[in-house]
Amino acid sequence: MTDSTIDTHALQKEARMMKLEALIAEREMHEVVPLAIPDDELLARYERLYTGAISDVLREHVLTEQAIPGHVNVLRPERTVAGFAFTVKSAPNTRVSGELTFRTGMIEQLGRNSFVVWDTTSDTESTAWGGVMTATAVGLGVRAAMIDGGIRDTAQILQKDFPVFYRYRSPNGSLGRCLISHYQVPVRIGAVWIRPGDVVVGDMDGVIVVPRRLAVAVLERAEQILGNEREIFRWVAEGDSVREITEKGGYF
User: Fold this and answer.
1) In whole angstroms, how far apart are CA 167 and each of 29, 65, 126, 145?
2) pTM of this prediction?
3) Which domain range does residue 89 map to?
4) Are 115 and 143 in contact (CB under 8 A)?
C-alpha cells in the first residue's frame, strides 16, 4: 500500500466522522466571564426588579424562552432573590453506591451568591432538597434554590430565610430513587437553557434566567423600564386617559 493510498483512506475516514466539536462546546463547556459590575451590587440591583420587567427586556433581545415553566411553585412569595446559576443534573436511578460521595463533592463546590438550579429529569418519586441542604446552603452563602422536582422537610426550610422554588413536595428522600450525575454543566428545563454563572431571578411570579453575557445590559434596561412605569402609574393616578398616556409613550 502506497503512502498516497494511506492518505486517501485517512481523508475518507475523516470525512465519514461526525463533527461534534461545536455541539460539545455548546452543551458541555462554559466560561464564566467577568462582569462590569461587582457581583454583590449587580445582584442587589436585580433584586429591586421583578421578573416580568426582566422578561420584557429579554424579549427585546429576541429571547422569549427564558422563564422556567410555570409548574414551579414558590415557597416564599414575599421574597425577590437573584443569584448566579449553580446547575445540578440528576435522574431517576435506584443505584445507591457512590451517591453520597458525589453529592458531597457537589456541595463542596457551592459558593457564595449561588442560585442552585436543579434538573431532576422529570423525577416524580423523590425529593432533591430538604432541611439539611437548606441549612448547609445558608451557611455557605447560597442565595436560593430552584428544584425542578421534589422538596421535603418544608417546616425546616421555612425556619431559614432561604427562598426555594419547587415542583412538588414528598416525604421520599432521593437516595435509592434518584442519582446526581453532573453539576456545573449546562442544563435544560422546559425550553430554557441554564448555564453556570447565568443570572437567575425568582419572585412570586416564577423564575427567569438571564444569560451572563447580557447580565449588565438587561439590568440597566430593566431599571429604565421601572422608571418608565413609575411615570405611567403617575399619569394613571392623575386621571390621564388611555389615549393621552399612549401618546406620551405609555403602555398597558
Assistant:
1) 28, 19, 11, 12
2) 0.90
3) 38-210
4) yes
